[in-house]
Amino acid sequence: MGKIKLAIVGVGNCASSLVQGFQYYRKVDGNSPPTPGLMHNVLGGYKLSDVEIVAAFDVDKRKVGKDVGKAIFAQPNCTLKFSDVKPLGVEVEKGPVLDGVAETTRGSFLVDSSQRVCNVKEVLKRSGAEIVISYLPVGSDQATRFYAGEVLGAGCAFVNAIPSFIASAEDGVWAKRFERAGLPIIGDDVKSQVGATILHRVLTRLFMDRGVKLERTYQLNVGGNTDFLNMTDRSRLKSKKISKTEAVQSQMTKRLADENIHVGPSDYVPWLHDKKLCFIRMEGRKFGDVPLLIDLKLDVEDSPNSAGIMVDAIRCLKLALDRGVGGVLYSPSAYFMKHPAIQYPDSVARQMVEEFISGKRER
Questions:
Q1: How much is the pLDDT for 238?
Q2: pLDDT in tens, 104-113
Q3: Residue 343 has what pLDDT?
Q4: Which of 259, 253, 281, 277 has the alpha carbon at shortest distance from 267?
Q5: Spans in the chain with pLDDT lower than 50
Q6: How far apart are CA 173 and CA 47, in angstroms?
Q7: What is the C-alpha to C-alpha distance for residues 354 and 363, in angstroms, rounded to an integer?
Q8: Predicted structure pTM score
Q9: DSSP letter at 260?
Q10: Residues 98/143, Cβ–Cβ less than 8 Å
Q11: In sequence order, which residues have a C-beta less than 8 Å from that of residue 245 and are 6 or more positions away?
Q12: Angle at Cα 70 formed by Cα 133 and Cα 316, nearest 5°?
């Protein structure tokens, strides 16, 4: 089937888990039994070993100029190391900072102004990149738009893993630009493999399907990586709260009043490192108006949770490129992302993805 040439924007914890995963699952093929951690051993004929990193961008001087295989383990990255990664022969280029560094993370990201900022579009073209993933920090709206423009200019497909709305923007401007260019896009804001959002959505849908009235709910999240430190700057949280809240509200037959739902990052605890703790409470009424309460805690390593979804998003984009399909991929976006252009129940979105993979559904 050939290689999938991938570029990564933001060589942080999520990128580290993803790159490690390509190495960890390199021997998995169509003859392998169902493999823990993967939704598809082979997707549309593509194995994880078919993915080749050809370009990467960051702003931290401890990563810029380093081989990607080394940079993924550089500070301030703190995610679990589950696989050794040999040098990949690709150096991390310095991208523009723009609004990618928050006031709260200026002490964590070490930016050297003497390092030359690359021409992103030219690097993408020169590398032969087909697909670009954006792992920029939450709140990097200006930087996200910049990279989306460079991706279009270089003729690449795009995965927007953060809640700066591109694929799902209400005005549809970016969606139309990608469609006119014949380039596929998946977005926005990755929905982790078994994370806070998918768990909260599924439980909300369970209430609806089983005739239970959900009256109040919250989802509180704490963690110790730079993503959580970044989000202590509350000015950067507007789109994140919209993304996470709408992901839950979309599963309701009748929306909850704003005062009865709270979803979002809550605090930063440095010693948790890449661990994320999620606390969900759901109060409702079942048969006979009798109260029902769910109070649960989810404890996960954050970044591998994201990578488990991204390996499929990448391969779905490659299928779209092979088929000449441009614009928003609605089915993969609905299953893989918190804030897709169109929301569906996850069981429905999953079936849609399978139909997309098989070619029965164009998008």
A1: 87
A2: 999 889 999 9
A3: 95
A4: 277
A5: none
A6: 33
A7: 11
A8: 0.94
A9: G
A10: yes
A11: 261, 263, 264
A12: 25
